[in-house]
Write a structure and sequence with these properties.
By secondary structure, the chain is of the alpha+beta class. The protein has two domains: 155 residues, 2-Layer Sandwich (Beta-Lactamase); 233 residues, Phosphatase 2c, domain 1. 37% of the residues lie in helices and 22% in strands. A five-stranded antiparallel sheet has the order 7-16-15-12-13. Strands 8-9-10-11-14 form a five-stranded antiparallel sheet, with helices on one face. α2 packs antiparallel against α6 and α6 packs parallel to α7.
Length: 441
């Protein structure tokens, strides 16, 4: 008969220790593989959830949660368990000992809640599982920015129904993870602020609404590269457009594309837009306006350049809209006639702006009859590529426009945008901008 109280044989103890070490090694290896992607996450909610899940795996905790330092209520999401798994969910923000981790900024380990919580009501604030077991062990590790001296962003809490579930090694592992989490959260905050500022800057450089012009139906679409793809969107693009009144009955239309993206490109779009507005009234021809813009860019001394097309329009009472336009290195304009034919204007495109002191530019004239549409795009439309690297190109855009007869300016612009997005899928390497002006019927 075997004595159940007999000590475990040394070989069995060694085998169990080896199995435990191998299991811990596997957990660490999985975490090392996941850690780069986890810490690159830009959504704070997903970031903290992933970090708590990693901490739970490292320690064998029954559950975990993250409490933001600015939260006064324990409205948190549990990792490993759900609220339905508790008869009484832990109130970590109000439980006297647990709340101290956020206040002191120090790591806290509770080996047995029963030692700290005197009485049933006090113990319940630390959590009771649905099967009636108390949450007896806790590990609370603050998350800081800029290392140990930064402000506390929140606290990672890990709990277990077994007493003495966590040890000093668990503290060290989770503290190291929380240090990385703090840096990643700080990065999230900086990225969010950059997004907010850049979005405001982009919006300020585009007219919020196109003006209502008698005899013209106008629409524009703008999409920075990577828009809609998490973590990939260029927050400030180089494409810009403007439509404004130059004088009574005469209007100016500008569409441009600055090389590159980011704040420097955005600054140049602002210079271009407001320079054109400033000189448009004094200069009679689009060619002269772009020449003045080229001079302004050279005085600025930027290493960036831009392409632009500027046009003047004078809608007439009989529905005819004479247009004079000039291109400075920009993709040619398209005219969609009401009979569904398509014309391509100025394939030469003129010279880039902001590079040469003397630019050769020429004005091009076209007349829009009622129902005809002038279509301007940036190279993000024409150079969009499919999975095989083939460009969207002029022929495809011409064929698409030929099927847009009778549509409103908004309908034409939306159809071009949708076709380009479907063609390139998530390969968003460049901004795209589309402006459509259609002579009223």
């Amino acid at each position: 008969m075997t004595d159940a109280s007999a000590p475990e044989p040394p070989k069995e103890m060694t085998r169990r220790a080896i199995e435990q070490l191998e299991a811990e090694r596997d957990v660490l290896e999985r975490l090392l593989v996941r850690l780069p992607a986890l810490l690159a996450e830009l959504d704070p909610g997903r970031l903290t959830f992933g970090a708590v899940e990693a901490a739970r795996e490292l320690t064998g905790a029954r559950f975990g949660l993250f409490l933001d330092a600015g939260s006064e209520r324990a409205t948190v999401s549990f990792v490993g368990l759900s609220r339905e798994d508790f008869a009484s969910p832990p109130a970590v923000g109000r439980a006297p000992v647990l709340a101290g981790a956020a206040l002191s900024g120090e790591t806290l380990r509770i080996d047995d809640v029963g030692v700290w919580a005197k009485g049933e009501d006090a113990a319940r604030s630390y959590g009771v599982l649905a099967d009636g077991r108390l949450v007896r062990s806790w590990l609370a590790v603050p998350v800081r920015t800029r290392g140990s001296g930064g402000p506390v962003l929140g606290v990672v809490y890990l709990g277990h129904h077994r007493a003495h579930a966590f040890d000093a090694r668990h503290e060290r592992l989770v503290a190291g993870l929380c240090s990385q989490l703090g840096s990643a959260l700080e990065h999230c905050a900086l990225f969010a602020e950059r997004t907010r500022v850049a979005s405001a800057l982009s919006e300020s450089l585009l007219p919020p609404l196109l003006p209502n012009i008698t005899g013209l139906d106008a629409a524009a679409r703008y999409r920075p590269s990577g828009a809609g793809v998490p973590g990939r969107g260029n927050l400030v693009g180089g494409d810009f457009y403007d439509l404004f009144e130059v004088a009574d009955g005469r209007f100016g239309l500008l569409l441009g594309d600055v090389s590159g993206v980011g704040p420097e490109a955005a600054a140049l779009t602002g210079v271009a837009r407001y320079t054109v507005r400033a000189v448009a009234e004094a200069e009679e021809t689009p060619c002269a306006v772009l020449t003045r813009l080229n001079e302004a860019l050279l005085r600025l001394g930027s290493e960036r350049f831009l392409t632009a097309v500027y046009a003047t329009l004078e809608p007439k009472a009989d529905g005819v809209v004479p247009v004079v336009l000039c291109s400075g290195g920009h993709p040619p304009a398209f005219v969609l006639r009401d009979d569904e034919s398509v014309e391509v204007l100025d394939r030469a495109g003129g010279m880039l702006l902001g590079v040469f002191r003397t630019v050769e530019l020429a004005d091009d004239k076209v007349v829009l009859q009622p129902g005809d549409a002038l279509v301007l795009v940036t190279d993000g439309v024409l150079e969009a590529r499919d999975a095989d690297g083939a460009e969207f190109g002029y022929p495809r855009l011409e064929a698409l426009l030929a099927t847009c007869g009778g549509r409103s300016a908004e309908g034409i612009a939306r159809r071009i945008e949708r076709s380009v997005l479907d063609y390139r899928e998530d390969r968003a390497d460049d901004d795209l901008a589309i402006v459509v002006l259609r002579a009223a019927m």
